[in-house]
Design goal:
The structure holds two protein chains of two kinds.
Chain A lengths: L4 E8 L11 E6 L2 H4 L10 H11 L9 E2 L2 E2 L3 E5 L2 E2 L14 E7 L17
Parallel strand pairs in A: 1-7
Antiparallel strand pairs in A: 1-2, 3-4, 5-6, 5-7
Chain B lengths: L1 H33 L29 H6 L1 H4 L5 H10 L1 E5 L5 H11 L3 E5 L24 H12 L4 E5 L8 H5 L4 E4 L4 H14 L3 E7 L2 E7 L2 E6 L5 E3 L3 H4 L20 H18 L11 E6 L4 E6 L22 H4 L19 E2 L1 H9 L5 E4 L3 H6 L6 E2 L7 H13 L4 E4 L5 H12 L8 E4 L2 H8 L8
Parallel strand pairs in B: 1-2, 1-4, 2-3, 4-5, 11-15, 12-13, 12-14, 14-15
Antiparallel strand pairs in B: 5-6, 6-9, 7-8, 9-10
Helix pairs in contact in B: 5-6, 5-10
The complex binds zinc ion.
The site of zinc ion has 9 residues of chain B, from helix 9.
Chain lengths: 121, 468
Amino acid sequence: MAEPIHLTLLFAGGAELLFDRVKRRDVVLPDLKDYLPDCGSEKWTVRQLVLWIREFLLKEREALFLQGDEVRPGILVLINDEDWELCGTMDYELQNKDSVMFISTLHGSTSVTSRIELYTP
Amino acid sequence: MEQLIILENEIKELRKTLKEKELEMERVRRELFDAQPEYRDLNNGLPASANGPEPMVKCGQLPKWAIERYSRQILLRDIGVKGQTRICEAKVLIVGAGGLGCPAAMYLAAAGVGEIGIIDYDVVELTNIHRQILHFEQDENTSKAESAAATLRSINSRIKITPYNVQLDSKNALDIARAYDLILDCTDNVPTRYLLSDLSCLSKRPLISGSALKMEGQLTVYGYRSDTHSTEKGVTFRGPCYRCVFPTPPPPDAVGSCSAHGVAGPVPGVIGTLQAMEALKYILDMSPQKLLVERMFIFDAEDMVAKTVRLRKRNPMCAACSDSPTITHLVDYEAYCSAPANDKDLDLKILPQNNRISAPEVSQLLKQKEPVYMVDVRADSEFHMCHIVGANNWPIDGLSGDALEQLLRCVEKNPSSVIFICRRGNDSQLAAKKVLDMLPEEHRHKVKDMIGGLHAWAFKVDNDFPVY
Ligand SMILES: [Zn+2]
């Protein structure tokens, strides 16, 4: 059996609003074979992590976190304080004690908020 | 009381006179200095060695007044006389005279940046003043760009300040930007951020980008390029642009919204101040490794945590900043992002006329003791600030699942109208629509959205209701 992976998940810039306003969570990932036996991967990557987050942590408005299986544009993903583009984005293989941060870009408006999921013209 | 009113009026008159005199002085100053560009402020007071006796002292390239005035920063090894000369010759464009633009402009003016342009189409409101520190109570309803310029002039009369009382758009942006060396993004919406990033790429001016909301702030430098700092291969160093990091705009989430987000004044204060710092460092030609190039500063005031994270490098295939860009001119960014660059005119109409009601009509129903049920869909923090007596808080953010079911039962049970209320009448329509879509036909006529929201209530029914 593989060693369990302990992660620190960080949500910021408003992304925490989708996760019960909790900005930091220390989690232990289950054995990938138990969670996604058919995913075709031996090791946890960010691709499986976002699905796991969607299933177990995301509280509302999925469209503001994921578009399909991709992280929504406007959310920057940082792995150990580095842009995930520098380490393989979705294919980054998670290591024990990694920190993964999902930070929404601040538009900085004091009068506009997110409502797209309600608006169906 | 009478004495107070007399004093208030006298001060008002004096301020008017003061403003006229200041404008006159600015005009005279411009005539003097703009007519002789080689004789700009910097030379004002230099010992006239050509005709007069040899000067006894040497002040480097700077006149006595500048040495004295800027001495506390000239003393820094990173600045010195050479650096101060660069600062005095620099031209900085600040887009947005708000929470970020005010402190940024303040420090740049105080540091002696030769020319500062400041753009804002908006007017000063009292709700701005807790964070927009160049504006004062007496500036209410005046142009933010003008108000900011006036304060900046009283901080430093030796520099040139140009206010632009316009909304920056794809037509006017290039002409304005060409007169400056670098751009500060102190704006607050996605379309303007893409506009400024493309403007930065097209005009080859770096963009120092700040943002602040609630208790959080972010800061980075986009579109950096420098001829003096090159990579090991001898190529000009270039950092990523906004599009390299955010190639796709986020979903148009500003559509149909009217909720107010708060911001703690010191947060844009910190970020705006640091934007000024990065601007000075760029002007001083400090190396890109020292600037926030390929790095982003993230600030969380609630937990008082600040960190700098590493961003990706410039994308050699980027649509905007690559060597063969597909974006070769500025476009319509509101359409591109499907979002308005300001939310002033947002006026949603998604409900049929018979599901809408005016604020005075609601007031009438309440006076007649009709058993109306008021559904205030704002966030609880807004609701607690002020609400119509008898209203019930159903925050739109939580209006799904069980809460939505409960509200539906509530509407069905209520014998009379159910009034949906929010700040400006957009969110309430979205909430009402959500309920209407799930409500059995026979109850639908009861659902009413209060047109114009609490703003309309304040203007048409109760002037004592706070407008925020
Ligand atoms: Zn780019």
